[in-house]
Amino acid sequence: MERAINRQKILLDHLRPTSSSDHNYEAALSASNCMAGDSAAYHRTSAFGDDVVIVAAHRSPLCKAKRGSLKDTFPDDILAPVLKALIEKTNVNPAEVGDIVVGTVLAPGSQRASECRMAAFYAGFPETVPIRTVNRQCSSGLQAVADVAAAIKAGFYDIGIGAGLESMTSNPMAWEGSVNPRVKEIVQAQDCLLPMGITSENVAHRFGVTREEQDQAAVESHRKAAAATAAGKFKDEIIPIHTKIVDPKTGDEKSITVTVDDGIRPNATVADLAKLKPVFKKSGTTTAGNSSQVTDGAGAVLLMKRSVAMRKGMPILGVFRTFAAVGVDPAIMGIGPAVAIPAAVKAAGLELDDIDLFEINEAFASQFVYCRKKLGLDPEKINVNGGAMAIGHPLGATGARCVATLLHEMKRRGKDCRFGVISMCIGTGMGAAAVFERGDSADELCNARKVETHDFLSKDAR
User: Fold this and answer.
1) What 3 state SS string does 164-193 have?
2) Catalytic: 446?
3) Which of 63, 116, 138, 417 is catalytic?
4) Which of 192, 169, 193, 190 is nearest to 72 (CA)?
5) Which letter, b or e, does each residue of 337-357 get, where b requires 16 or more Cβ atoms within 10 Å of its Cβ?
6) Where in the cell is it found (predicted)?
7) In this predicted model, what pLDDT tens digit does every residue of 332-390 receive, in sequence order?
8) End-to-end alpha-carbon separation of the chain, Å?
9) How far is 112 from 105, CA to CA, in rounded Å?
10) Would strands 295-305 and 318-327 be described as parallel, antiparallel, or unpaired?
11) CA 230, 415, 339, 179 torsion-angle sign
12) Are strands 99-103 and 357-360 parallel, antiparallel or unpaired?
């Protein structure tokens, strides 16, 4: 009997945080086995306290590149306020952050890495906190979050930040230097160089997505984004940016505070969009109106081990469950979410029907409509506050932006919304997806299969 009691004490000591002064958390570490899923396959594969959780997720307003409110703002000045907000709104000691990972796509790698380091200093992080960038094209912001979650899970550190940054004003999409002639030898290698709009046309043609379907999807995106803005739904996630703007005609400079996304068109109609000419192919269906907007913006997500969040008394916004990246044919790269979403959902032990909300990046209406139809998803569950066709698609920041939008909406919906998915297609033919659980749902359901202390004792006695 004594041996059994000692065994249980050792077990609980392993689960208990380093500080034992938090009696509420100590009480939560009763001997229990958390099997919290609605689906039969869903289960936790690690100790409850080892969950990777999100305690804060914020973003800048997203603004039209070249013409919007952030066109004269340095990239590091877009990222810095968002990083600073994570610390100010949570009171986390910035010195405790083990790493900052920033997704970014277009800028020269070394320059953007330096800008991100500068932004961290502007935000008040000490020199001891490292930072790096990651580039997986349009999923870079989500990849950054996944990288931090994996590092926390691996025990490299307990607290980290996954972020994203893109200034498409400063760094337009362009190929620099020459292209290897060898690319002509392999068709799929050639297709990696296709303009993204051509891949959109390929998806529309191959899978029969009509111009009308695409324009309707764009109108719905603007309608929902405008309604969300009017209802104040983005206020909790958007961090105002205090900056300057220069009048291109007079050169006059004035100080402004940017608080809302400036690319949303509340009055967009299918009739208006039908008047726009195809951009990439004369006989095509992809237009400026049914494509994502070229955008400037940033986002950042603060993650930590659940036991640390509980010890610090922080409300948990969400739980990071799984991540999947997949490869697809580069010529139809937009189908990526249709492959990545099932992979991520399966890895979580769930079914598509278990997912309450989806944030699927609207790179192009053609691929968005295809993925929605291919997976048979309920339109009422997808991009309920609009998507990239209205809000914008700052390539490296989109994943982090989607995390903020998804988790704040899940929080608003409460018990009616337990699982959410973020996904996007990726240039050169890939897709990525991640599954999140609402922050407090695990707490509600953790005792679904409670194992009392006497079970441990009786097992050892046997």
Assistant:
1) EEEECCCCCCCCCCCCCHHHHHCHHHHHCC
2) no
3) 138
4) 169
5) bbbbbbbbbeebbbebebbbb
6) Peroxisome
7) 999 999 999 999 999 999 999 999 999 999 999 999 999 999 999 999 999 999 999 99
8) 10
9) 9
10) unpaired
11) positive
12) unpaired
Could you confirm whether 425 is annotated as catalytic? Answer: yes
Tell me the two tokens of residue 322.
């799984």
Q: How far apart are CA 426 and CA 371, in angstroms?
A: 14
213 closest CA partner among 273, 264, 268: 273
Structure tokens at 423: 């996904």
- The sign of the torsion formed by the CA atoms of 225, 227, 228, 230 equals positive
* Distance (Å, whole) CA 315 – CA 302: 12
Q: Which domains does the chain have, with CATH numbers?
A: 48-170+187-446 (3.40.47.10)
Spatial neighbors of 160 by CB under 8 A, at least 6 apart, are: 97, 98, 99, 100, 101, 148, 151, 152, 303, 304
Q: Is 371 a catalytic residue?
A: no
pTM of the model: 0.87
DSSP 392: -
- Closest by CA to 392, choosing from 236, 260, 241, is 260
pLDDT in tens, 175-205: 889 999 999 999 999 999 999 999 999 999 9
Calpha distance 110→130 (Å, rounded): 15
Q: Among 77, 53, 73, which Cα is nearest to 65's?
A: 73
Per-residue pLDDT tens over the stretch 267-309: 999 999 999 999 999 999 999 999 999 999 999 999 999 999 9
Q: Which residue is associated with the tokens 């969400």?
A: 318
Q: Count Cβ neighbours within 10 Å for each residue of 221-230 and write b for 16 or more, e otherwise.
A: bbbbbbebbe
Residues with Cβ < 8 Å from 180, sequence gap 6 or more?
Answer: none
Measure the CA–CA gap between 22 and 12, rounded to whole angstroms.
Answer: 14
Q: Which residues contact 387 (CB under 8 A, 6 or more apart)?
A: 221, 225, 292, 359, 360, 361, 362, 368
